[in-house]
Every structure is written in C-alpha cells, then in structure tokens.
Amino acid sequence: MAGCVYHPGTFSIKPGQTVKLSEVIKKAGGTINGNYFAGERSASLRRVKVMRYEKGSVVEFTLDVWKGTGGSFIIKSGDRIYVPELA
C-alpha cells in the first residue's frame, strides 16, 4: 500500500482470507484528506491503482472507490495498491 494514505506499508493476507480494497485502505489508516485548495495533500479515490502479477505479466486495474464499486474489489496476496493525490 502506497500513496496518499496515513500508514503506507505492507499488509498480510492470510490464506483463504477475502479482503476488499476498502478494508486495506482502512488498515492503512484511511486516506489523507487535506485542504486541496490550500496546497495540502488529498487523496483521489476515483483513480486507485491495483497492480497484480498474473501469468507472467503485470495487470493494472484503475478503480473508482469514491462512487464506483472499486471498494469491493478483492485484493490478493502480492497485489500492489497505490492511492494517488488529487491532480
């Protein structure tokens, strides 16, 4: 987990455990939501990236956690998650 979250880092997923993207973001302390107009960092939940290694290549998913169903996206062991800043 990296990007605009309070506690970036590595989080464990136990074998057989189902973990949603929204749960991993919560484990990372949630997103940073500063005052964008005052120049403070603020997360963009409309473009969360999940990179997954499958069959010899990297597959990238761009998910809308804010208004879409991206929060219910199932995270697998080894996935890389990036929450970008508002642009």
Itemize the secondary structure elements and their pairings:
Blueprint: E1 2-3, E2 19-20, H1 21-27, E3 48-54, E4 57-63, E5 74-75, E6 80-83
Parallel strand pairs: 1-6
Antiparallel strand pairs: 2-5, 3-4, 3-6
Account of the 3D structure:
It is a single chain. The chain is globular and about 45 Å long. Helices cover about 10% and strands about 30% of the residues. The model has no long low-confidence stretch (mean pLDDT about 90). A hairpin with a 2-residue loop joins strand 3 (about 50-55) and strand 4. It has a single domain, classed as Outer membrane lipoprotein wza domain like (Outer membrane lipoprotein wza fold like), CATH 3.10.560. The strands form 2 sheets. The chain has a 4-stranded mixed sheet with strand order 1-6-3-4, with no helix packed on it. The longest helix has 7 residues, at about 20-25. By secondary structure, the chain is mainly beta.
User: How many helical elements?
Assistant: 1
Segments where pLDDT lies below 50 for 5+ residues?
Answer: none
| Basic shape | globular
Measured distance between first and last alpha carbons: 19 Å
Note the main sheet.
4 strands, mixed
Q: Would you report the number of β strands?
A: 6
CATH top level label: Alpha Beta
The CATH topology, please? Outer membrane lipoprotein wza fold like
Helical fraction equals under 10%
Structural class: mainly beta
In the CATH hierarchy, the architecture is Roll
